[in-house]
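Dear V.,

Thank you for sending over the compound details. I've combined the ligand you provided, adenosine-5'-triphosphate, with the protein sequence from our construct and run the structure prediction for the complex. I'm sharing the raw inputs here so there's no ambiguity about protonation or stereochemistry in the SMILES, which I know was a concern on your side last time.
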Amino acid sequence: MDPRGLEFLDEETPRIIMFCGKGGVGKTTCASTTAVHFALKGYRTLLISTDPAPSLSDMLELDVGGAITPIPSVPGLEVVELDYDDVVEKWKEKFGAEVYELISAFLPVDEDIIEYVAGAPGIDEEFALSYVYDLYVGGGYDVIVWDTAPAGGTLNLLKIEETFYVHLGEAAKMYVRVRSALDALTQGRAKRDPLKIIGEWEQLAKNVLDMMKDDGTRAFLVTIPEALGVNQTQRVADDLRRFGIRVGGVVINHVLTEEAADSDFNRARRAMQLRHVEELEKTYGGTMPVVQLPLQPYEVRGVETLKKVEKILFPEPT
Ligand SMILES: Nc1ncnc2c1ncn2[C@@H]1O[C@H](COP(=O)(O)OP(=O)(O)OP(=O)(O)O)[C@@H](O)[C@H]1O
Ligand SMILES: [Mg+2]
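Below is the predicted structure of the protein with adenosine-5'-triphosphate bound, written out as structure tokens.
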């Protein structure tokens, strides 16, 4: 039977459910609704946003902030929005000492180098992913629902992670080649073997990439039935495949229902939308579920509204 919504996720619930797509198509709506759904079903659920312009707080009408916050009206649901300043602070706490150890093994530097490295491009993204990884392996959650940054954003995180991984491998090889010269230069200043530190970082990057490729991780493409959305969806789908991330389905949001198409204006709009719905079904329908989320007459805000949308996105099997 064709799914009407995402109810098929109840049968085989992924450990990580990501929502990806272009700006404003409804990623936060789908992610929040899905997280509410699984929490209501009794799963320990974490809703996380790595969007640098986060909107979970607005959607939940709560000040979530950079700390993991329980949602009192939905037992079992916790929410966190990564605050990127906070991310850099946490990165320094976690890796600062290692960075200093590593670099001071090569060069006569003082601890200011930590600040410098912490400000380097990609470090916040790198940490955002290792933060998700820690929560994933921590075992505290049955399901992690991930509200990602628009379109390229999250995949950039992965590109950086992949680059980082490759570079670490290169760094280790380079270090081996120059090791004896460096040892003479630094006269054994390093407290720990730099190769070990590089190796640990490399392992962490690999773990993150493996988590994304895991069979228990599913990305959903969220789009609107318009050409811009459809084209962007294709690009995001291609990128996800390139990283070996499994795509679990497509959600076409903002669809005007037949009842809603009650004026010439709305009938014309619905006809336009249906052409794109058909195109999406033709492209993806053969390999994955393609479901629709109708446009609602209300704004999606607050937990009570999310519970209403939950009934639409996760209809009871008939
Ligand atoms: N099916 C729907 N019916 C009515 N309103 C909707 C629906 N889906 C989303 N919205 C509204 O559309 C707006 C954008 O949705 P949302 O914030 O989920 O998109 P997004 O993809 O997360 O955006 P961004 O890329 O900015 O993070 C919100 O104001 C939300 O309330
Ligand atoms: Mg959003």
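A first observation: The chain has ten helices and eight strands.

Warm regards,
I. M.
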